[in-house]
Amino acid sequence: MSRSSGERFGDADRAAVEPLVALVAVLAIGVALGLYTTALDDATPVTEDPAADAADAALDRIERDTTVGGIVRPNRLRRLEDETPAVVELETERRRWRVGVGAASPDAGGRIDPRSPAVAQRPVTVAVSPGENVRGVLRVVVQQ
């Protein structure tokens, strides 16, 4: 029998959708949400912070100057020369080294707030003694 014969169908037959049509609809909604998110992200203004850029550049230079074979050597911190006044901190679980670079002088007390825009940090491997390397964080604070 055909549906046009006036025969009444059960509730399960009403509002049935083909699986392929449902799949296409879900994909279309997913693509639309993805495009909307991308457009919204591109439209959001990004504030450029020169302090953050300076901190990242200083961190790159300082890491290059203190690293030998991929391992940061704390004794090389004393020989840093940089035109950007900054405080350099190398911290492991057991010890912390802090030096001033350029015209900056390291503050003897207190901790550096890593959320500050003038701070850049990176995980590194630190040589604490001959043959002993531990994980640490190399942190640079640019003085403004």
In short, what is this structure?
The protein has helices at residues 19-43, 50-66, and strands at 67-68, 71-72, 86-92, 96-101, 119-129, 132-142. By secondary structure, the chain is of the alpha+beta class. The longest helix is centred in the first third of the chain and has 25 residues, at 19-43.
Write up what this structure looks like:
- Keywords: Membrane, Transmembrane, Transmembrane helix.
- Pfam families: DUF7285.
- The chain crosses the membrane at residues 20-39.
- The protein has 144 residues and is an alpha+beta fold.
- Helix content is 29%, strand content 27%.
- The chain contains 2 helices and 6 strands, in the order ααββββββ.
- It has helices at 19-43, 50-66; strands at residues 67-68, 71-72, 86-92, 96-101, 119-129, 132-142.
- The strands form 2 sheets. A 4-stranded antiparallel β-sheet has the order 4-3-6-5, with helices on one face. A two-stranded antiparallel sheet has the order 1-2.
- The chain is elongated.
- It starts with 18 loop residues before the first helix and ends with a strand.
Sheet with the most strands?
4 strands, antiparallel
The radius of gyration is: 29 Å
Label the overall shape.
elongated
Average predicted confidence as pLDDT: 79
Strand order of the largest sheet: 4-3-6-5
Sheet/helix structural class:
alpha+beta
Distance between the termini: 85 Å
Helical proportion, percent range: 25-40%
Unreliable parts: none
Tally of domains: 2
- What fraction of the residues are assigned to beta strands by DSSP? 25-35%
What is the H/E string?
HHEEEEEE
For the secondary structure, the number of strands is 6
Transmembrane segments: 20-39
Pfam family, one: DUF7285
Keywords: Membrane, Transmembrane, Transmembrane helix
